Amino acid sequence: MKRIFYLAGYLPLLTAMTILCGAFCFVASFFSLRAARYVSNTVWSHAVLGPAGLKLLVSGRENLPPGPEGFIIFANHNSLLDIPALGLATKAPLTWLAKASLGRIPFFGWGLARVHLLVDRAGGVETISRLVKEAAVRLARGEVLSIFPEGTRRHEPEQLLPFKKGAFVLARQTGAQTVPVALRNTGALWPVGRLGPRPGLIRVRIGPPLAPAPGESLAAFTARAREALAALLADDSW
To answer: pTM score, two decimals?
Structure first.
């Protein structure tokens, strides 16, 4: 019965909403990035979680930096559910740093490329320089950059993969604060390879923001950020 539900109900609905939201975001981005981002982060996220019976329990939202300046969110990643969960849990105008190949997907990718920030992982120094400049512009206008520094979904939810340094290069170059966000139970509810999610509760904990210390190396800052996220995940009080 569950398989029939996914094949006949949930997956067609999710596909239709993804196409519609992607098309809307593409068109709306020419007139209002705010409206396009709301659909991308909120409307689409509800379409993913709601019909599947998934709910959020969020703590630490007071740790999100106040004020008009943007900041960077980094989170653990072991499920497709991490993306909509972050969008709804933070209630922030998220701009996703996503791999450039996603921009080639019809409708979804077109909207993604217009609203979010796509990264060519094979790019060289010039590509990184352009990315930093674009990120600085977006942070200055109050957008919140969101990234999974592990770079891919992992199969072992209790262990963080080594962090890629991209988010922390941006933080050092732009002076933006970085906020760790721990996601629990997403991998159990929709593991890699499963047809669709099962109902349940996703727990999200937002930690205090971090900033590079004077004279701190990129490697040391990246390691400190990883330790902060690991500590959130290991804390059993939530």
So the answer is: 0.89
